[in-house]
Amino acid sequence: MALRPLLHLLCPLCFHWIAEEMTVSVLVDVTTAALCSGASTCAEVIYINGLQQTVVGIFKMVVLPVLGQLADEYGRKPLLMVTVSTSIFPFAVLAWNKSKGFVYAYYVLRTVSYILSQGSIFCIAVAYVADVVEDSKRAAAFSWITGIFSASHVLGNVLARFLPEKYIFEVSIALLIFGPVYMQLFLVETVRRAPRQDQHSTGCTKIFKVLQERCLSMKHAATLVLSSPTLKGIYIISFFYELGMSGISGVLLYYLKAAFGFNKNQLSEILMMVGIGSIFSQMLILPLINPLVGEKLILCTALLASIAYALFYGLAWASWVPYLSASFGVVYVLVKPSTYAIISKASSSSNQGKAQGFIAGIQSVASLLSPLAMSPLTSWFLSSNAPFKCKGFSIVCASLCMMIALCYAVFLKQEEPANDESNNNIDDVEAALLS
Asked: What is the pTM of this model?
């Protein structure tokens, strides 16, 4: 079975995702209570979330491709352990105190955590899967990873729904600590490190060589993606999809709280609906239909569902409509596994981390740009000064980005990767330049 080699990868990731998701709906109440002085929402909390998203996106442009390259060179295990450990500290701050000053400290630490872990965990995990699973079974393996991600979200929201708020951060921290400890004990490394040739170099020489290696490796990754019609198309699709979806994700819960008065329990129910349907579609439906219709048709269908998801949320006219909108999450979650599968098929075995990391870096560019429009637009239309009555107008605007992504996906051309020999030639050139 394709999943057997992945057991020790998926188990700690499952606990990590449960721990993160169980705090999502509670954070809306905690941050609003600390920053909005009793109001259901305020401009400050929307802008500070937008600022966080923008700062994270700026740094992720550089950090994500570098982490992908480091995972190719130094191994998946140490990079995974570092990235999953970063979430412990911000939640420890809120477990200690939830006053205004501590909420600001949380945002600072969480921003650093997001820079190192948001997107990179998936990127490195997908590269790990490519190391141990053969080509024909990768789409199914990716769908199981994203399916377990959704299952973890459901379990996290169940805990958030029924656990008293005062215990949520303590339980989350315990689960977050479990992840890296488990990886240290049981996860097997799949990358063999080449011996270093510069053991006797001076400190300055080593730093210069490291910077030179990173620049050349990033240039190699960019050349790899831009020279492939498939990868070039996917990076455009990923950019516009992430531009719209990250914008929606950044403001959605605050919009629901302000527009319909949703509390922690109702927000958890919305998130649970998406998660439960996602498990079914990713772990059962996708592995069955992928051999029949292929990743491209699945990607197009998922993008179409994401457009409907955004429009129903943005135009919601009653408190039950967000629940209808959430049902489209069953389909739009297939964007990620189909994208991973297309990237993996279009990349050689030695370039999995570079390709996934470069695409993730492009997504981070989109995630830094989206709050620049979404935060002020959402705050404006939730206020009494809106030019017309449509509190979800910013979400409707975000759906246009998914429409552009769908247009590119329809015309996407899929191709086989360049052989490993040509990639090795590029690596030889890099090695010669560094010697």
From this structure: 0.67
